[in-house]
Amino acid sequence: MAELIKGKEVAQKIREEVSSEIEELQKKTGKVPGLAVVIMGEDPASQTYVNNKEKTSKKLGFHSEVHRLPESTTQEELLQLVDRLNNDDNINGLLVQLPLPDHIEDEAVIHAISPEKDVDGFHPVNVGNMMIGEKCYIPCTPHGVIKMIEHVGYDLKGKNAVVIGRSNIVGKPVSLLLLDRHATVTITHSRTQDLPGVCKQADVLVVAAGKPEMVKGDWIKPGAVVIDVGIHRIDDKLKGDVEFESAEKVAGYISPVPGGVGPMTITMLMHNTLQSFKFKHGLE
After folding, report:
1. Per residue in 17-57, pLDDT tens?
2. Cα distance between residue 47 and residue 214, in whole Å
């Protein structure tokens, strides 16, 4: 049976470190890092996620702002708010919760956020810097995935890593981070031939496919590290992209759903906001 990589425990350790550092910084500077979140409309999943961000940031000692806008808000009005928050000295991290309503261009909003405050790591400047190995904000979910693998002391050097999914939010950035740690990386997607066969070669399998329980136990190499990024509500239960029951019997390590990658995403957002504050105050 696989050993569980409990994101909740890894996240708690990092949160304690962040909270302690904020206390120290407040003594030194008289200030605390500030995080602003902008949300449009009433999407239930987004509301839950934003509420969790607000609750976590306040608990850790951040200055926290949530700007809740009606779905009818125009793109121009949204961009004006982004510009104001870009220029607000109390705000070190700024994110606009996706998805946005259809009349708003996601790219225009992402591009409008100052790269220095882009703690989601989605701005092209941060994406480009990550590609060439320069200092940047690493997207939160991929960063969390890497932290979970490192937590169990797994050495990625020379290992075969397979990523299912090629999104800009998870698949592509996590592939770069694995490559940066000297893994040999294969990115797969809906047009990959013999996907189960490709997965079976993986020492590390990161699944961000967006399809519930797609990856079965017989897709997994015995002893592999399996990180399940997916989350789906089915019959009032939360399931991942991996069929946990069959996969757990084959893998060496596996992240559960819930309690796996989810808690890490918000934690790495807090980590990035703290880094932004330190950079601004010359404390890096």
Report:
1. 999 999 999 999 999 999 999 999 998 889 999 999 999 99
2. 27
Which CATH code is given to the segment(s) 140-262? 3.40.50.720
**Residue whose token pair is 């700024």:** 94
Which tokens sit at 248?
Answer: 């757990």
Supply the CATH classification number for the domain 30-114: 3.40.50.10860
Domain boundaries, the chain: 30-114, 140-262
Cα–chain center distance at 58:
19
Q: Cα–Cα distance between 188 and 186 in angstroms, integer?
A: 6
Catalytic annotation, pick one of 27, 47, 88, 97: 97
Residue from 117, 118, 120, 159 carrying the catalytic annotation: 120
Predicted model pTM: 0.94
Cα 227 from Cα 277, distance rounded (Å): 30
Is 155 catalytic? The answer is no
Query: CA-CA distance, 204 to 115, in Å (whole number)?
Result: 31
pLDDT reading at 70 higher than 90: yes
Task: For residue 120, indicate whether it is catalytic.
Answer: yes
Catalytic residue among 53, 117, 147, 172: 53
Q: Average pLDDT, stretch 225-235?
A: 95
